[in-house]
Amino acid sequence: MNDLPVSPPPAVEALSTPVPSAPAADRSPLLNFFLDALIALVILLVVSIAAGMAWGVIRGFQLVLEARSRGVEIDPAQVAHQLGQPGAMAQLLMALVSTGAAALVVYFWRRRATAAERRESWAALRHPGTWGLAALVAVGVFCFSTATGMLADRLDIKPVPTNLSLMSDLLSQWPLSAVLFAVVLAPAYEELLFRRVLFGRLLAAGRPVLGIVLSSLAFALLHEIPGLSGNGVLAICQLWLVYGTMGAAFAWLYWRTGSLWAAILAHGLNNAIAMAALYWFGLQ
Is residue 57 part of a domain? Predict the structure, then answer.
């Protein structure tokens, strides 16, 4: 799945796999890219709303049972008033279910890997160079985001990522769950959706650069949606730059190694470094 020179060095040659041609039925890869993204967005929104409603029902029953245990009658209006907002763990579970549902449905429905692709991916993962590139990309992405944050701070641009408060609460209350979500589950689902499905469709059609640009834009938009935080225009642009660069780096790694596992490893390692920095130094 790489576009390599004709005679790469031996250490790199072992990583190279041919770029698959676009399926005969996929005569409109760009249209299908946006269709994939739209389907994933609809599933994400529907499942998020359903999960929120489910939390509200469960929380409502808890409030009623707690009131009855104290011998107090409570009416529906009071229940609705006392619901409040989901806690950190509830938000984590809702994000996990909605993101996972979107990634898995679109993957199995729209761009499921063939047996040959799975064999090539595992073969690339067994090569030491794949692990080295994954580590290099992870560290490079973290250094770039840190440097960008420091520069933005000097320019008096102080963005607050939408998920920063949630991750801080999770680290303080549920550290193991936070690590499992950020280092294992979220990278797997996000790479499946953004790199395998979205980027992979245009890569297979022979348009990798366009695939990197569009999938990275989608990745950045999902992580920082305008209006969901108090960030100003410049702060949002700085976050988009960080997330977009991150998405481009992981897409390049997938393209370069031919293994989605390499992108998942790099994504998970980057998140692990960021969480360690947040925990020990309070860095973003």
Answer: yes
* Cβ 251 vs Cβ 199: under 8 Å: yes
- pTM of this prediction? 0.85
Report the candidate in 184, 139, 186, 193 with the shortest Cα–Cα distance to residue 163: 186
CA separation for the pair 18, 260 (Å, rounded): 15
Q: How far apart are CA 58 and CA 79, in angstroms?
A: 11
Q: What is the residue range of 54's domain? A: 29-281
Q: For residue range 103-132, what is the model confidence (pLDDT) as tens digits?
A: 999 999 999 999 999 999 999 999 999 999
12 within some domain? no
Query: In terms of Cα–Cα distance, which of 222, 167, 162 is closest to 194?
Result: 222
DSSP letter assigned to residue 7: S
Identify whether the C-beta of residue 33 lies closer than 8 Å to the C-beta of residue 198.
yes
Report yes or no on 3 lying in a domain: no
**High-pLDDT (> 90) share of the chain, %:** 56
What is the domain count for the chain?
1
Give Cα 262 distance to the centre of its chain: 15
